[in-house]
Amino acid sequence: MEETNITIQHPLRNEASEFSTMRGGHVALRAADYAGIVKWYQEKLDFRLIQEWPFGDLQLAFLAPPNDDNFCVEILGGGQPLPQPDYTDLNESLQPAGYHHFCLEVLNIDQTVAELRRRGVNVLGEPFDFPTISKRLAFFADPYGNLIELASRLK
Q1: What is the pTM of this model?
Q2: What CATH number is attached to the domain comprising 87?
Q3: Which helix (H) or strand (E) holds 72?
Q4: Are 91 and 140 in contact (CB under 8 A)?
Q5: Which end of the chain is more exposed for a tag (fewer CB within 10 A), N or C?
Q6: What was the pLDDT predicted at 10?
Q7: 76 belongs to a structural domain
Q8: Do 127 and 110 touch, CB atoms closer than 8 A?
């Protein structure tokens, strides 16, 4: 395999911006089965339950990746939400407008995908290289239709 070294040039940071303290924090996912979605993220992805609380007739929680305290998935569970489409193909999932996925960075896509499959997770296709952004990518879905991207740096 040929060595690929792509440098992505970011614009200068804007420390003078009124929004200069803005950081990513969490993504929220909606599911009817609160206990089921929390259990899935814990068992399939080893996420940690950080906090739980009620909100009206819903139960909410923050779940964090096994070794990351800076990003959470917020679960909004209960009630009767409308179902998500059940995608089996990444290209099909790109058709509707609006929210598409959130991304988790990993060191080795192929090892991570192999472990997800071993745990019975629905992976959409095979991992693929995307040299334009110097990443290797893969996509999978939780059982409630929420798409998740995995990304690692191309070597």
Answers
A1: 0.85
A2: 3.10.180.10
A3: strand 72-77
A4: no
A5: N
A6: 75
A7: yes
A8: yes
